[in-house]
Design goal:
This protein is an alpha+beta fold. The protein has 2 helices and 2 strands; from the N terminus they run E-H-E-H. A two-stranded parallel sheet has the order 1-2. The longest helix has 21 residues.
Length: about 80
């Protein structure tokens, strides 16, 4: 693992439950493979970093962002700029 992290390093990964293999259901279907795959990769990276950085005391936060919250924030930003 890189030694370029500062002594007070903290890592935050923004992801969503869309990348969860266990939370997806057959009823939801497939589709959006790039989106779901990238979220799954982010979830896995956070999980593995937790193992690798545990001894160094670097906290890993994985924030699962709701797509509805993102849409709301984007809508509000556009409204403010208009």
């Amino acid at each position: 693992m890189s030694s370029s992290l500062s002594p007070n390093a903290k890592i935050v990964i923004l992801t969503s439950e869309a990348g969860s293999v266990t939370l997806r259901t057959e009823g939801e279907g497939g589709g959006m493979y790039g989106h779901h795959g990238s979220k799954a990769a982010g979830n896995m990276i956070g999980h593995l970093l937790g193992y690798d950085l545990k001894e160094r005391g670097v906290p890993i936060a994985m924030i699962h962002v709701s797509p509805f919250l993102v849409l709301l924030l984007i809508t509000q930003a556009v409204r403010v700029e208009s």
